[in-house]
Amino acid sequence: MKVWHLYDKVYRAWVCIVVSSRDEFVDFIDGCGYKDMDFVRELVGGGQGAMMRITPADNEVGNNCVVVWMQQWRAATLVHEISHLTSQILSDCLVPVNHDNTEAIAFYSEFWWTEINRAKRRWPDGNKHSDVQK
């Protein structure tokens, strides 16, 4: 399993990219102490990837973290999940996600494509939380 932790300073969003088998991902999320594990199992059931906003079991507000899971590192899957990621973070920050705001959506999607691929080049086997701010 490979995990990258990323942070967007503008929208103050943590993003965790996980490349692993379905079972490893479910165990990873369960081990982090998040609720709605039935949803997690259903979400990763048949696809190549998934995106989810996670909420700790002891918190109703959330922790401003989005997790993107991919069974394998594939550009097409990453592009698909970045579209969900972009919509989620912008919506969380009350930025309109609609036809009138496509340029902001496109730029933010490009930002995540660049950041995720930069992290993968820098840390091919994932990074540790302590490495994020370096």
Short descriptors:
single chain; alpha+beta; globular; 4 strands; 134 residues
Number of domains: 1
**Average pLDDT figure:** 84
- The total of helices stands at 4
The structure class reads alpha+beta
Shape descriptor:
globular
Helices and strands, in N-to-C order? Answer: EEHHEEHH
Q: Tell me the span between the first and last alpha carbons.
A: 22 Å
Question: What is Rg?
Answer: 14 Å
Main beta-sheet strand count, sense and barrel state: 4 strands, mixed
Estimated share of beta-strand residues? 15-25%
Give your account of this protein's structure.
By secondary structure, this protein is an alpha+beta fold. The protein has one domain. It is 42% helix and 19% strand. The chain has four helices and four strands; from the N terminus they run E-E-H-H-E-E-H-H. The protein has helices at residues 22-31, 37-43, 75-92, 102-122, and strands at 2-8, 13-19, 49-54, 65-70. Strands 1-2-4-3 form a four-stranded mixed sheet, covered by helices on one side. Helix 3 packs across helix 4. It is globular. It starts with a strand and ends in a 12-residue tail after the last helix.
